[in-house]
Structure formats: structure tokens, C-alpha cells
């Protein structure tokens, strides 16, 4: 069941559109992750209608893109305000989604439905019991189905914090002071996440770094005026070490 420490974004929903969606970092995140999702879709016969769950899907950008391809997409989110924005977005895109306003953990306990593909992007770092969330997600995946999991990378956070000279934040163990911000509550160590997945018999097929360069650029203006070149480099190096380990997010495809 949901704990009081699982983050609900009803109080700061407006910040997402301004600070994440539509920004260069948001565009890179969506483009790189979409590239991976397309690789999952290519594993199925062309034109096959898939059942897809976007768990913690927020404002529905990825869900709408999948629905446009003809798939049966359900968007689950604990935030009613996020779902309202997702509905408005779906209407503007002229697509139909199913909506569930509840926590992912509760959904896995109450629903008998399983899905061909389950997406869970930028949720793991907001939930206190990360392993418990993965257990809940696995229950929602069909046999031989796929999990698309993206989480906030502890290594990337530490590297960025030190390069900014924020030594006080490092000394606190990267524990943030203000809770109602867009900085995740529980940055995840990738090795720990990989171990959780393996313990659940979920085979990791691919790892991708999301924003391996963008956030470390000193000249912020070039994030916009050289965006296409930057995006090309992000896509080129996102699966190569050492860049992958220092990405701000890591996206995993598992089966």
C-alpha cells in the first residue's frame, strides 16, 4: 500500500510544465527514452495492438504517443491534477486513454489485468520502498512482457553537485532540505536497482543514460541554440561508458 512518504505532486503540478516538460532537458529525456521504447515495439509484429500501462505517467506525453500508434494505453497516477492535465493533453492530440487515479502499489493489488508493456518513468526516486515498487510493477507485466524503467541516478547527482561546488549538500549525504521541490527524495544507486531487478527474475536487456552531457554544460545558452547537435551526441553516447554511469537518469529495458 502507499506510504505517507510516497510523493504526490498535486501541490506542485504547475512546476512540471514550466521546469521539465518543454525545456531542453525534457525534450532530450523524451527523445532518448522514446528511442528505447521503439526498440521494444519493434519486437512485436507490425500493427499488433498492445496493452500498455504508463505507471506514474504524469502529464501523458509518452502515453499519447503510444496511443497514436493504435495501442490500448492506461495511464495511472496518484496525482489527480496530473491526470487532469493528461486528459486535456490527450484531447488536444485526439487520442483516447484509460485513466486510473491511484498509487501503483495499490493497482497491483486490486487489478487482475496484466500488460504487454509497463512503463515507469521518474517514479522510483520518489518512492521510499523502491524494491516494493518493482515487486508491484512485475505483477502487472504479462509473461514475456516488458518493463521500461527510468530512474534518477545517484552517481549523476553526486557528480553534478560536486562540479557546482555544493560541498555542503554532499556532506549532508545528498539529503535535500526542502521537500516540496522537483529534486527527487530518493536518488537511486544503479547497482542496487539492477540487483532488485535480477532478484525478481527480470532480465535487463538494455541500459541507456538520459542526459549524459546536457546538465554538465557550462554555457547554458548552447543547450538551446545548439540543441540538435547536442541531441545527436546524447543519442550517440547514451549507451556507452563512462557516459552512461554519469547520466542524470538511467533507462532500463527489462523482460
TrEMBL record:
Gene3D superfamilies, sorted: Vaccinia Virus protein VP39
EC number: 2.1.1.-
List of residues binding S-adenosyl-L-methionine: 29, 56-57, 77, 121
EC class (word): transferase
Any single Pfam family the record assigns to this protein: Methyltransf_11
Source species, domain of life: Bacteria
GO MF annotations in UniProt: S-adenosylmethionine-dependent methyltransferase activity; tRNA (5-carboxymethoxyuridine(34)-5-O)-methyltransferase activity
Entry function: Catalyzes the methylation of 5-carboxymethoxyuridine (cmo5U) to form 5-methoxycarbonylmethoxyuridine (mcmo5U) at position 34 in tRNAs.
UniProt similarity note: Belongs to the class I-like SAM-binding methyltransferase superfamily. CmoM family.
Protein name in UniProt: tRNA 5-carboxymethoxyuridine methyltransferase
Amino acid at each position: 500500500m502507499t506510504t505517507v512518504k510516497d510523493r504526490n505532486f498535486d501541490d506542485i503540478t504547475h512546476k512540471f510544465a514550466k521546469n521539465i516538460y518543454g525545456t531542453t532537458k525534457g525534450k532530450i529525456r523524451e527523445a532518448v527514452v522514446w528511442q528505447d521504447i521503439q526498440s521494444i515495439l519493434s519486437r512485436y509484429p507490425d500493427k499488433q495492438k498492445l496493452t500498455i500501462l504508463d505507471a506514474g505517467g504524469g502529464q501523458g506525453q509518452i502515453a499519447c504517443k503510444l496511443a497514436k500508434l493504435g495501442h490500448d494505453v492506461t495511464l495511472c497516477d496518484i496525482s489527480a491534477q496530473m491526470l487532469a492535465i493528461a486528459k486535456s493533453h490527450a484531447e488536444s492530440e485526439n487520442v483516447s486513454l484509460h485513466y486510473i487515479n491511484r498509487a501503483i502499489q495499490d493497482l497491483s493489488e486490486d487489478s487482475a489485468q496484466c500488460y504487454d508493456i509497463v512503463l515507469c518513468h521518474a517514479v522510483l526516486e520518489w518512492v521510499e520502498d523502491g524494491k516494493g515498487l518493482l515487486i508491484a510493477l512485475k505483477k502487472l507485466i504479462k509473461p514475456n512482457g516488458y518493463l521500461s524503467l527510468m530512474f534518477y541516478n545517484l552517481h549523476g547527482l553526486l557528480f553534478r553537485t560536486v562540479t557546482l561546488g555544493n560541498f555542503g549538500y554532499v556532506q549532508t549525504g545528498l539529503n535535500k532540505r526542502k521537500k516540496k521541490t522537483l529534486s527527487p527524495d530518493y536518488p537511486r544507486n544503479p547497482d542496487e536497482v539492477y540487483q532488485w531487478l535480477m532478484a525478481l527474475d527480470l532480465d535487463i536487456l538494455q541500459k541507456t543514460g538520459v542526459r549524459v552531457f546536457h546538465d554538465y554544460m557550462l554555457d547554458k545558452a548552447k543547450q538551446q541554440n545548439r540543441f540538435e547537435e547536442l541531441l545527436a551526441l546524447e543519442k550517440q553516447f547514451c549507451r556507452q561508458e563512462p557516459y552512461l554511469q554519469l547520466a542524470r537518469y538511467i533507462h532500463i529495458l527489462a523482460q
